[in-house]
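Hello forum,

I keep getting stuck at the same step: I have a sequence, I want structure tokens, and every attempt I make locally crashes halfway through. Rather than fight my setup again tonight, could one of you with a working pipeline run this one for me? It's a single chain of 325 residues.
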Amino acid sequence: MWLHSPSGTGHTVPQLDDKHLIFFAGWLATQQDFNSHSSISHYVSAVRQWATHNGRDDPGNDERTNRTSFRLVKFMKALKRKFAGKKTKREPLTLVQFDTIIRMIDSGLVVDGLSRVNMHAAVTLAFMAMLRISEYTHSVLENGVLTGILRQNVEFFPSMKNPEGIRLKIDRSKTDQFRVGHILTIYASGHAHLCPVKALRTLFMQDPRPPTAPLFHFKHEDASRYAFTSTFDKILTACKLPKEKVKPHSLRSGGASAYLQTGTDPYIVAKMGRWASFCFTMYTWASDDHLRSASKTLAFGNRESRPVNLEPLRTGAYDMLAPRD
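Reply #2:
Ran it on my machine without issues. Output:
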């Protein structure tokens, strides 16, 4: 509109920034003529080129760092996912698959040495504590802040020599908008190979690191997401598990599914997984044992039970609490 305004009308193009580009890209995504990520990306790039060609600051850069805006990159990636669509739905990892992965890691056929110790601890902790991959892998933000769990975020209690459990502090997470952090309490399972507390103790004993170091190192001193996912894919291939369906997030959803299938109260699962609601049930699976038990419970249930009428509570009928004359 500004570019095609008649000369002399006083219209000038305002100073653009990344928020304008995000709004512009979002508006294009709502138009019928723009049905691909590449076409929208070309238009956004054209605006950036126009700005720099006319002696303006690149609106795609963060004004504080003069680097490509993190917000713009994330938004464009979201648009790419929107147009691409999910061809294959991620599946939660089953306990059988989890056992297979742990045995393959411990065999040393795919990873060995300290990488094996780190991978065993990372996979076990991610499954049992239902962690997001961004929490147990690290990255460096533009301001130099290291994201992900650090060695100092793990506290063994009552002691590392003979721990009953750990307290795990998560400084940053996807749903923690105010960055207040979370502290998870994880108890030892007592299992020889499927105990996150035992796996972390072994890691700390065999691979000591400074307190400010990332919790895990998977390859070449790196605990980035790429290092973990590439090693995880190799393990899946060795286990003959479907890489197109089993992803790192399958550890989180698989852990939630396993807890539910063993009879753990959904409230506890939500608290451990740091879900604010029961939205996690959208990507957890019920087992055959669950479905079989539900059918029998219904068929042989108590015929005398009656549903409770909650309508008075919903409509606010609290006559008994009203003041009496």
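The beta strands are 139-140, 146-147, 154-157, 165-170, 182-187. If your local run keeps crashing, start a new thread with the error log.
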